Amino acid sequence: MAKQDTIAMILAGGQGSRLGALTDYVAKPAVPFGSRYRIIDFPLSNCMNSGIETVGVLTQYQPLELNSYIGNGHSWDLDRNSGGTFILPPYVRQAGSTWYKGTANSIYQNIPFIDSYQPRYVLILSGDHIYKMNYAKMAAWHESKGAEATIAVIEVPWEEAPRFGIMNTDENSRVVEFEEKPAKPKNNLASMGVYCFTWESLREALIKDEQNPDSRNDFGANVIPGMIDEGKGVFAYRFDGYWKDVGTVFSLWEANMDLLERPDVMDLRDEMFPVFSRNYQQPSHYFGENCRISNVAVTDGAELYGDVENSIISSNVIVEEGAVVKDSILMPNTYISAGVRLERCIVGMDTLLEPNVRATPDEPDGTENFRDKLCSNGITVFGPNLIIREGLALKGNSMVWPNDAVRVPELVAERYPSWRKEMGQC
């Protein structure tokens, strides 16, 4: 392999269990976002815009959709003769095989891949965050400090700090203490899950961590605290742009709404730092004669005939005349029939809502049989690949799972592959 100064490893194997039904069939980085993107598009685009030519994507949970979407990396200009994009699942060795046991273990298992490029620096990136960041600037800052590990940090509201790993630093930005989700944080500098390591130091730390039978093999819990305790040069790199961990239903909904309500915070129209995605050729979106739309992000293939306000509309979505959609996210290939009323909803891929389905935060006649602790702030989630039967009414904070097709077949059914043909859309 040709030597690379810096390579990136994207951790994309997480289940994303807090997203509930939305990750029943896909890994969290493959979840649609912002009308035309997947979550994984952001770290991949950041790599391209930062001049990182070799990217390893570590997959594990439900990898089929994610692997197919990434392909050879062509959509992000990461299909290089020297370097490129590599899907790296766990694999069988002579000594046997194991799943990735933790974030650090996943990198440990790919030491031979990294060694083959002889890098000076390795970026470790989460595959499930929404942000735009020039990693080349972070790597240059890392080098200027003579650091062995650099952790990107962002100031978060004090009331949210207990949800994050907090970095306590000295006046030179050197990390002197790492607190994992502290009840009473000493500051509000939260780890973004973006790390730059000097490879020689990281390699040594990974081998040492793997030999510890009590380790969770996790960067945040073990590797980074261990390097700090040993007096290694661990520094905090402050980031002042938009960043969102979309690991919960509410944070995913909120990040999508930010694109509508605060578009300048993360400018997706910035030609100097674009976000790329893999988009198949679709006809132009279409607005029917009687449709009414306001503050909507819509992409190719969508057909809108009803009323849509302050919502994210993905490819091949159809909203029939007489339907009302407000403050909601419609993922690819969803079909919203006449008489449907949605407010603060997320509708998963390939799901059909039959006429007069209603889901609003305070739906007066809504059932509470689908209430779910994963949903909050009045948001309702319809899982993927479902048919929601006519007239079902749901109160906010509900979630309809694929297994509800077995639990309540009179209300929920599996979506058959031919549903678009049956609805006259093919």
Could you characterize the architecture of this molecule?
The longest helix is centred in the middle third of the chain and has 13 residues, at 249-261. The strands form six sheets. Strands 15, 17, 19, 20, 22, 23, 25, 26, 28 and 29 form a ten-stranded parallel β-sheet that branches. A seven-stranded mixed β-sheet has the order 5-4-1-6-11-8-12. Strands 14-16-18-21-24-27-30 form a seven-stranded mixed β-sheet. The chain is of the alpha/beta class. It is globular and about 65 Å long. It has helices at 41-49, 64-70, 103-108, 111-115, 135-145, 199-210, 219-229, 249-261, 404-407, 419-422; strands at residues 6-11, 32-33, 37-38, 54-58, 84-87, 121-126, 129-131, 149-155, 165-169, 175-180, 189-198, 234-238, 243-245, 286-287, 292-298, 303-304, 307-313, 318-319, 324-326, 329-330, 335-336, 341-343, 345-347, 352-353, 358-359, 380-382, 386-388, 393-394, 399-400, 412-414.
Low-confidence parts lasting 5 or more residues at pLDDT below 50? 418-426
Calculate Rg over CA atoms.
Answer: 23 Å
The total of helices stands at: 10
Structural class: alpha/beta
Net shape: globular
Rounded average pLDDT = 92
Task: State which percent range the strand residues make up.
Answer: 25-35%
Distance from N terminus to C terminus (CA atoms, Å) equals 47 Å
Number of strands: 30
Approximate helicity band: 10-25%
Quaternary structure annotation: single chain
Main sheet characteristics: 10 strands, parallel
